[in-house]
Design a protein that fits this description.
It is a single chain. The chain has 229 residues and is α/β, with parallel strands linked by helices. 42% of the residues lie in helices and 16% in strands. It contains eight helices and six strands, in the order βααβααβαβααββα. The longest helix is centred in the first third of the chain and has 22 residues, at 26-47. The structure holds 3-methylbut-3-enyl trihydrogen diphosphate (2 copies) and magnesium ion (MG).
Length: 229
Amino acid sequence: MREIPCHIGFIMDGNGRWAKKRFLPRTAGHLAGLKALKKVILGCIKEGVRYVTLYCFSTENWSRPQDEVNYLMGLFSEKIMGELPFYNENGIRLLTLGDISVLPEDARKALVEAVEATSANNTITVQLAINYGGQREICQAVNRAISEGIMEITPEVIRAHFDNPEVPPADLIARSAGEKRISNFLLFDSAYSEFVFCDKLWPEWSEEDVTAVIDEYNGRVRKFGGLKQ
Ligand code: IPE
Ligand code: IPE
Ligand code: MG
C-alpha cells in the first residue's frame, strides 16, 4: 500500500535561478515561488499529508541584499492576509516556526493575524518557517527548559519546548533546485527523515511534484535503527 508521509518539509530553493534564467530580478522569482507554494499545498492536501513545513526565510537569509530582504518581508505582510480565502476554503491551518518577533511590524502582525484567522481549520497544518534556523531552535528550546528550572535536558524535553511541539518530526524532506544540503532546516526533527532532492527550481513545482516525491519516499525502507520489518 502507498504510504503517505504525515509531515513533509520543503526547502523551497531556486527562486533566484528561476528569475535569472528569464532575465528577471530575483524578486520576480520569489513571487513565482509563492504561486508554486500554493500548488504544493494543494498537492499535499490531495495526497492526505497532515503537516507541511515550508522553509520561507532562514536565520542566514538576513545576509542577502537589503532590497531582497525587504521584498520578502513585504510578501509576508502583503500576501498572507490576501490569501486568507485560499487558506480557509481549503482547511489550511497556518502556524509560524522561528522568531518572528524581530520582523518588521506589519509582517509580524499579518502573520499573527493569519495564524489566528486559520486556527479552526483542520485539513492540513502548514508551518511557515520564517527567521528560522535549526541550530537556534534547539538552543532556544534548551534555554526555555533551563528558565523553567529543568535540570536534565533530554530529547523529549527539547521537543516539548519547540514552538509547535504538537507537529511531529518530518517523515520526508524535499529540496528543490539541485542543492544537496540541509541549510539549517529542521536539524532536530530530521533525525530519521527521508531526503528527496529534485533538480526542478521551486517556482516550477506543482501538485504533481508532490506526488513524485511521495512516490520516491515509497521506494525507501525506513528502519529507525532497527531491522527491516
Ligand atoms: C529560495 O530561493 C528562497 C529563499 C531562500 C528565500 P533562492 O532565493 O535561494 O534561490 P537561488 O538559490 O538563489 O536560486
Ligand atoms: C535555504 O535556501 C533557505 C530557504 C529555502 C528559506 P538558501 O538558498 O538560503 O540555502 P543555501 O544558502 O543555498 O544553503
Ligand atoms: Mg538558494
